Amino acid sequence: MDPGNNVHATDTGGIVVVTQVQPIACIFTLPEEALPTLNRALEAGTVSVTAMSRDGKSELDRGTIALVDNQIDQSTGTIRVKATFPNPHDALWPGEFINARVLVRTEHNALTVPSNAIQRGPNGMFTYVVKADSTVEARPLKVGDESGTLTVITDGLKDGEQVVLSNQYRLQPGARVRSVAAVPPSSAHSAVPATTGAATKVSS
After folding, report:
1. CA distance 81 to 98
2. This prediction's pTM
3. Which residue would you say has higher pLDDT here, 28 or 7?
4. What angle do CA 110, 115, 116 make, to 5 degrees?
5. What gap in Å lies between CA 42 and CA 21, rounded to an integer?
6. 160-185 pLDDT, tens per residue?
7. Prior bond of 36 cis (ω within 30°)
8. Neighbours of 172 (CB within 10 A)
9. How far apart are CA 158 and CA 142, in angstroms?
10. Of these four, 22, 112, 115, 154, which has the most CB atoms within 10 Å of its CB?
């Protein structure tokens, strides 16, 4: 606006835009399948949300769920969720793209493996397990929730068993493999043990 302009209450353009950044709100979407789990978590108390960078490697801030939309978008099969973050270091900014991770449940003493160790076959999920003689066997699995790069195993593996992480397409039962600790070359197979610990169920 310039001096002498007439300003009306019905003008479509505002004189100034005021944006609050501390705290700041974020609106994101979740698949409609996640709604029952989210509602159960909200019934139990406050649900925390972690704001991650666009590449998913850096944590920007932690906040809480403030509001869940009262209807599902039928065109996308998603529901909108609003979260608030304290944003003390201005890591979040209006218009910024982030990834939101919602913590809805923590499973204690869960057996987990890296998600890339799990394969899908004609009979369902399986993984290649490294036996004592360094050969592999295809082991059928029952899997639970997936959290980030880890998947919960409900049946088929024991704590400490080693599973193959790479080049599974070159394997067949009885093949011999070599375990490596560092990032393997394209011709090697890497293996890690299944581990038991606390696993968090998130929706992102």
Report:
1. 14
2. 0.64
3. 28
4. 150
5. 25
6. 888 888 777 787 888 887 777 645 44
7. no
8. 9
9. 12
10. 112
